[in-house]
Design brief:
heterodimer; A: alpha/beta; 33% helix; B: mainly alpha; 12 helices
Chain lengths: 344, 312
């Protein structure tokens, strides 16, 4: 990856509330190469969606991208370019696919009109050309009878169809990067697989890079080459997908993997990670995961871990990279102890 | 790069047919009955409104006499309804039917134009406040609170006192510009909800300029409550205009409006009951028609009113 398509450096997006600052994204750095698919994984509230919105500067006040953040894309810094230039990137060079196909389409216009509008905003196409392009795009995303479907309204289509329309809107200008924020979460399992397959097909065809944001490691396993795991507004582990599943290093990643149901394993209950993501206004000191971590020791409560290099292209924000023997002594996480104390 | 993806097409068709059958389930009997009731209310109120508008439009052709002519102020004054004067005459011997027909023009046009003005101003204000949000919104809403704190009728009396007699245009402007506050609140609340929807974020993510987002994505999706409020508002303004005319600060004499005719007849209601009765009835029927229309429109446009529990 000589020259990455998108390079994010020290992205910090804060939300300013009444007397408190919510550090939703707090120093995230990563890059995406041309034609690459990477996964961004984490629980609700870990900052993955805010990261996605930040890339296109879609975060609304009171949210703000802090000075010092850099989002380099095709030779420009998206953090500093003006609104006009940014609009020429949005939809044309970087497009987004949202989670809810139910609400991602405007109910008062036909799907054809909505796709054609994107063409009209970014190109000099006539109404007719834009419409033809929309129909063609519907066909490309696998919608049968596209010419008729284009004249239908979103509510006339099924969830899977709507998501295909959303993907068509994202891809119609042939962008270099598609950010898909939980594109399959709202869909039935069978449709999920189809949509992921479609994204992969289209990527093969157009050479688009994809940033796939999800809380579902299963989705990641099937479709990406590299995984970023986010926790507490930070990247806590980054690894090629195989390495991540084979030898996850960070206890949080371990927890996520253990929480996945697997075939052929007789387990009475799925394991869970105890506790919840702390509020972004008060990240814990030291390692942000220490109170939920089964290996944490004193160092974790005071010293914020850096990203340790633990393999080629594999980094982890855990002090166990320094002290691997700690992994042999799991204990009850701090939150569990606190809960017990509170209960008694 | 221009061919369909054959692998997924049959599966999608299958999925689509599955979804379609779930939606096509026969709804319960209550829903079509309710739908029919709403539809019929919508149609008869709309027909009545259309009829009233036609009457107003063709008043000169329909009226048997000049509405302001006083043919025989002694001999023909205060005539009860008869063949020559179907609705009787007033104290100046003017034909009441003709005055009612011309009064419809004034009452309806004042009400409709004032409401159109109010709805436009209110929508613009609400959309701007709601879409910009933040400090703009806070300032604009506090200003609105201040405006809402002024009693409307007192404000109207104060403003209308500037003219004597009041030109019709001024009446429309003043009623319109004092009537948009509620609409803008309604619109703003709706915009706040619409702008959070993913298609607005998606439109921004696709590089759509702000004005275009407002025009194409926000405005069409907030117009339903505006339409309903406008329909209901026409009824209110007809009553308001009648009230102002009754107070003697509305339309200028001898121009007839239903309110001013009612005012003329109210002094001697027991002796010449027809002078006040017919404009009163006209006001009631018109207000009823507009309110029914507004209500039916709201029910017809609001999917929740017809929800059978399956559609959203």
């Amino acid at each position: 990856m000589a020259d990455p398509l998108l390079q994010i450096e020290n992205l910090r997006t804060f939300f300013y509330g009444d007397g408190s600052v919510s550090r939703a994204v707090d120093g995230v750095s990563f890059s995406i190469g041309s034609g690459e698919t990477i996964g961004l994984v984490g629980e609700s509230g870990c900052g993955k969606s805010v990261t996605a919105l930040s890339v296109l500067r879609l975060v609304r006040p009171p949210g703000r991208i802090e000075a010092g953040s850099r989002i380099k894309f095709e030779g420009r810094d998206l953090v500093t370019i003006d609104e006009r230039e940014l609009r020429s990137v949005r939809g044309a060079r970087i497009a987004m696919v949202f989670q809810e196909p139910m609400t991602a389409l405007n109910p008062v216009f036909t799907v054809g009109e909505q796709i054609a509008e994107v063409v009209r905003i970014h190109g000099k196409a006539s109404r007719r050309e834009a419409w033809d392009r929309a129909v063609e795009m519907l066909q490309i995303v696998g919608i049968p009878a596209p010419a008729e479907r284009a004249r239908e309204y979103p509510h006339q289509l099924s969830g899977g169809m709507r998501q295909r329309v959303v993907i068509a809107m994202a891809l119609v200008m042939n962008p270099a990067l598609v950010i898909a924020d939980e594109p399959t979460t709202a869909l039935d399992v069978t449709i999920q697989a189809q949509i992921l397959e479609l994204l992969q097909q289209l990527q093969g065809r157009f050479g688009t890079s994809i940033l796939l944001i999800t809380h579902d490691l299963g989705v990641v396993a099937e479709s990406v080459s590299r995984v970023l795991v986010m926790y507490g507004g930070e990247i806590v582990e980054e690894a090629p997908v195989k390495a991540l599943f084979a030898e996850a290093h960070h206890p949080y990643t371990e927890g996520l993997l253990a929480a996945m149901p697997r075939l052929g394993e007789a387990r009475e209950r799925l394991r869970t990670i105890p506790g919840t993501v702390p509020p972004p206004t008060r990240w814990p000191s030291g390692c942000r995961f220490h109170d939920r971590c089964p290996y944490a020791w004193e160092r974790c409560t005071t010293e914020h871990p850096p990203l340790y290099q633990i393999g080629s292209a594999h980094v982890s924000r855990c002090h166990m990279a320094d002290e691997p023997e700690r992994r042999n002594h799991p204990h009850e996480p701090l939150v569990m102890q606190q809960q017990r104390v509170a209960a008694s | 790069m221009r061919s369909p993806t054959p692998a997924s097409a049959p599966a999608e068709r299958l999925a689509a047919s599955g979804v379609a059958s779930a939606v096509d389930e026969p709804p319960s009997d209550a829903v079509p009955a309710r739908r029919a009731r709403i539809t019929s209310a919508l149609w008869w109120s709309l027909a009545l409104i259309a009829l009233l508008c036609l009457i107003a439009l063709f008043a000169p052709g329909l009226a048997p006499y000049d509405p302001n002519a006083q043919p025989d102020i002694i001999g023909l004054k205060n005539q009860p309804p008869s063949f020559a004067h179907p609705l009787g005459t007033d104290q100046y011997s003017r034909d009441l039917l003709s005055r009612m027909l011309f009064g419809a023009r004034v009452s309806l046009s004042v009400a409709m134009l004032a409401v159109l003005l109010a709805a436009t101003v209110g929508t613009a204000y609400g959309v701007i406040a709601g879409y910009l949000g933040g400090r703009f919104d806070a300032v604009m809403m506090r200003l609105l609170d201040a405006l809402l704190a002024i009693p409307r009728v007192l404000l109207l009396i104060a403003l209308l006192a500037l003219w004597s007699p009041v030109p019709l245009v001024a009446l429309i402007l003043i009623i319109g510009f004092t009537g948009w506050f509620e609409v803008s609140r309604l619109v703003r609340a709706e915009v706040l909800s619409v702008k959070q929807r993913e298609y607005v974020v998606a439109a921004r993510a696709l590089g759509t300029p702000a004005l275009r987002i407002i025009w194409r994505h926000v405005l069409p999706n907030v117009l339903t409550p505006v339409l309903v409020a406008a329909a209901l508002g026409v009824g209110n303004v007809i009553i308001l205009e009648a009230g102002l005319s009754y107070l003697g600060i509305g339309t200028r004499a001898p121009t007839a409006s239903w309110g001013s005719i009612f005012y003329d007849g109210s002094d001697a209601f027991q002796a010449t009951w027809w002078i006040a009765l017919f404009p009163g009835l006209a006001i009631i029927i018109t207000v009823l028609a507009f309110n029914t229309f507004g209500g039916a429109l709201r029910d017809a446009l609001d999917p929740h009113q017809l929800a059978d529990g399956k559609s959203r």
